[in-house]
Structure formats: C-alpha cells, structure tokens
Structure to design on (636 residues):
C-alpha cells in the first residue's frame, strides 16, 4: 500500500514509518519539523520506498498534493504538549482539530477514504469508570488537548457517515520507548542530569497513570487496521495496569543509581486539565489477539536507556 | 445584568432577548443577519436597554469590543442547518466550533466568565439508550452539526477548568414556536402552500423525534442559569414525549384542512447524519422544577399559526 503518515518525524510517527517500510509498504512522510527530529527519519530516508514531504497540516495545498496516489493515512501530526493548553487555547484547536479537518478535506479531494488517527485517553476527561471502556459515559472535557482530539474524532466519524470513509481511532495512554521526546520520564531524567540530588514532581506523586511501549502501540494499530472491519473502529490502547508517579520515580532513580530528595508541586493534578487517574479498558483491542510485550516498568526502562544514548536530544529539547 | 446574546436576531435568540428585556436586563444583541431577521428584533429595538451589534462570531475584534461590561453571554449564533453539513464540512466547524472559540477568547480578554450555550441532542449521534440521558455512552458523531457542537461544548468545559468559567450547556431537541424559520414544519407548510394536494417527506415518515416549544426552552435556560451552581452544568432540553413524522403530518394537514397525497424520500433517515430516533431524558432539568407548558402537538400548531401570519418570512426564506 501507499501510505501517508503525518507527523512522520515524530516519536510515534517515525517508529511507525520504519515498521511500514519494513513490511514493504510505500510511505510518504509528512512533517513540519516543529517537534519532529530529522535524525528519527534518517533510516527511512535510505529507503527508495520513502518520500519526505516537508509541510504543515495547516497548509491545505501541500496536504492535497501529498495525497496523490495514497491509499491509507495515519494521521499522527498534532500538538502533543498536553500541559500547556491554557497558555494558548487556540493552539490545540488549530493544530489538532483544524489540522485534522484539513487532512480529511485533502483526503476527500484525493478520493482517499481510510484513515487511522492518534487520539488520546484524555478524551475521557476525569473518567468515572475504571478501567475506562470506549463507551464510557459522555465525559466533560477538562483539557484543551483532550477537547481538540475528541473534536477531531467527531470530524472523522462524520466523514465516515457522509463520505463512506473508514476510520480507525486509537485512544492512547502515554506512549514510551525509543525516540520519546517529552513527558515525565524525559523531564525527570533531565532534572537528574542537571542536579542528581534533587527531583521535583508535578502534583503529589500519587497520580496513577497507564503507559504503553511504542512498539506495542504500533502492533495494535497495524493489527486493528488489518482486522477491524467497521466503518468506525475505536480502540483504547494501553497496558492492563497503571502505576503511581512515585513508583515511576523509584524505577527511574534505581536504574540511574541515584537517591534524590523528591519534592512535589502539590495538588492532586500535575497541571490544569491533568487527570489524576488514567487506566483504560483495552479488552476490545485484546479481543483481536493483541497483547503488549512490555509492562510499564520495562517501557520506562527502555525509554531511559534511549535517553541515555541520546544526549543530543536532551540538548535540543531544552 | 448586562447580557450579550449572540444570534440575537434568530428564532431562539430574539425570543430570548425579548424575555431578558422584559425581566429588566440590559441586553447587547449580536448578529450577522445571515439567517437572523430584522423583524424579530423590532420590538427589542424600542427598548433603551437594548443595543444591537452587527457582527460575525468569526470576527474576533468586533466580538471583543461587544464584550465590554458584559456579565453573562448566551451564545446561540450558529449554523443551524443540520441537513447540509456534507455540502461543506467546513461550515459547521467554522461557524459552530471556531465561532465558539472566538466567543470564549473574547470573554477571556474581557474577563467575562459565565456562558450559556445552545448545544443539541445531535451530539448523541444515533443514541443507544432512550430516553437519552446527559451521561449517555460516549457517542459516535454522525453529523457535522453534532460534531461541531460537541467540539464547542469541549471548549467551553476546558475554559471552565482552566480559567474558572461557569458554563451552562443546553442540548436541545428541535425547537418550535413563533419566529421558527426552518425545519420540517416550515418545509411542509411551504410545500402545502405551493401544491396543497401533495406532500413529500424525507425518510420513511417513521422517524421519531422530540420537540420543544421555544418559550418552554427559554424558561428552562433561565431557570438553570438561576439555580444550577456547578462550574459545568449540562442539561438536555426536550419534551417528555416524541412523535413520528407521520403523526406530525397528520396534525399539520388536519389544522390546514388538507388531505394531500404523501410520498416519501425513502430510507430510515431524512438526510445523511439524521438520527431516526431522538428522545432525551430531561429529568435533570425537571429536577430544578421546570415543566414544559406545551406538548409537541400544541407546539407544532403554534408554529403553524405563526407561519400562517408571516407570509413575508415564507417568501424571504425561499
């Protein structure tokens, strides 16, 4: 298949591109390199089946041109910095909702009708049911990020209804692993590089979160696209476990051989719109035969090992 | 209070403006007159407590200026033509989602923090639970209209979380009554004026829908704003009954003394994204003491009587 991946130079996008190329597909990678890293697609660029398009999902013309001959779109380009929504409430709306609208319009113009979308467990807001299933009670959005992703989901499913699109919507927990560029493991590791004796955690350290290893996430997406036959296919993707921030701190500091004094920002939530407890019911994707290969602890350690080998990334993302 | 009403020259907006003026409030009416009717605010314009701002919610500057001194916003401006989403999927996104984002940003700039929003029962897509409660299972959006309104709800509640806004979200069934300018009663009445012997209905005539009389809708909104104390207050607004399209046709033709031959467009749905069964659980708003004064039949007849007295509107909306 000829597949377009938006956000192709990002953490998950570049990992997906490598997998799609390894499976023999032709891949067009689309990225504006706002957070994507050229190093992440170095390997892809050695393949004759890979084409790079430098472009922004807010530029409909470039998107429409990139859609030529495409049979399937993985739309991963997004603002993924969940924490900073209130600094500019329009940013998530533009990059995540309007960006998705542009992708869908470019698909319609190019008669491309299959799309997989990286949504988020944040669409459940502060969930009331745990583990949270895909058909949880209609949640109240608490973050601009979650609101913008749920809005994008709505667009995709309305295109499925109106224009015979087929949509795959994946609601991720936090993803970990090689090429990880932001999030709590990144923040903690950088802090401990700068000052090994102290560590500051947002919230009270008791927030419970679920995580998933990036290759397990990609396994799940590829399996669903192969096996799920509906017009609209929605899947939670996460581990069947969660951990507290304090447990994560324990694994990280133990791996690094450090015993920092830990202080806390305070409050139940790490930031405005943070959900203090995220744990998704993933029985739907498990029903297709998917099982994650790494648990949360192993995923955190693989992320740490990657960061330890990537001092350039730590420097660049300052 | 000094209250801004967007969509002030529309069906529901102008009816609300009159009620707010009658209660002694100062009202700033905001409308771009794309579907609003100057005649609907003729009465309001005779009040010294009413100011009209001719503007579009897609123009942030005019909105920001209109917000001066405002204490409460009723945001009703929207594309309300549910049926034509697929003709231009960007229209609902722009007018309903981005328009709401602009209203919220103008409020933030003007330190206005209380907003009531006209959402829709269409956010439930094709609901699985009847009557459908506010916390129904997270629905799949089937219409661009519903998707754009749910996206706007998400923005409002994210502002409530991040910026201490107070939000009132009202999910309406179809509203009927004086100043009604579009929808099935309008379509049927016009058809029967043009050719009294034949009537064409969309779908199969068996779609079951709930309706609410406009003054009952306004009663509910004013009561909720007065009594509901939460940061985020979400209410279904509808009658505790529904009717089939064919019943509605019976009441309309009986009132007009006609016996047309009825033909059907076919299919279970009236249009792409139409939900064949809409019936909302309104026990939450009833819990505040609200009761509708008119049933569906009476609301349809009041709408017909209004249309019979308003030939100018029939002509203009051709």
């Amino acid at each position: 298949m000829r597949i377009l991946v938006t956000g192709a130079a990002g953490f998950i996008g570049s990992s997906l591109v490598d997998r799609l190329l390894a499976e023999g597909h032709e891949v067009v990678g689309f990225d504006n390199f706002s957070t994507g890293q050229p190093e992440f697609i170095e390997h892809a660029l050695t393949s004759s089946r890979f084409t790079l398009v430098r472009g922004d999902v807010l530029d409909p013309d470039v998107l429409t041109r990139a859609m030529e001959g495409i049979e399937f779109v993985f739309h991963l380009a997004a603002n993924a910095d969940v924490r900073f929504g209130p600094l500019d409430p329009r940013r998530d709306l533009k990059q995540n909702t309007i960006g998705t609208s542009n992708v869908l319009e470019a698909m319609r113009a190019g008669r491309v009708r299959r799309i997989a979308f990286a949504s988020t467990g944040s669409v459940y807001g502060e969930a009331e049911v745990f583990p949270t299933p895909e058909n949880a009670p209609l949640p109240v959005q608490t973050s601009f990020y979650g609101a913008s992703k749920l809005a994008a989901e709505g667009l995709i499913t309305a295109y499925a209804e109106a224009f015979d699109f087929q949509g795959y919507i994946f609601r991720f927990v936090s993803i970990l692993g090689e090429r990880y560029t932001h999030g709590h493991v990144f923040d903690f590791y950088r802090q401990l590089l700068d000052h090994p004796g102290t560590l500051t955690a947002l919230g009270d350290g008791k927030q419970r979160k679920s995580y998933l290893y990036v290759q397990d996430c990609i396994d799940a997406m590829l399996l669903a696209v192969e096996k799920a036959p509906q017009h609209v296919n929605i899947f939670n993707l996460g581990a069947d476990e969660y951990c507290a921030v304090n447990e994560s701190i324990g694994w990280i500091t133990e791996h690094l051989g450090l015993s920092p004094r830990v202080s806390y920002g305070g409050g139940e939530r790490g930031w405005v719109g943070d959900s203090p407890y995220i744990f998704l019911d993933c029985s739907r994707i498990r029903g297709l035969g998917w099982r994650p290969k790494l648990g949360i602890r192993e995923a955190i350690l693989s992320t740490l090992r990657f960061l330890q080998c990537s001092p350039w990334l730590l420097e660049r993302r300052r």
Observations:
- The longest helix of chain B spans residues 89-109.
- Residues 176-209+241-279+293-316 of chain B form a domain with the UDP-galactose 4-epimerase; domain 1 fold (CATH 3.90.25.10).
- The longest strand of chain B covers residues 114-120.
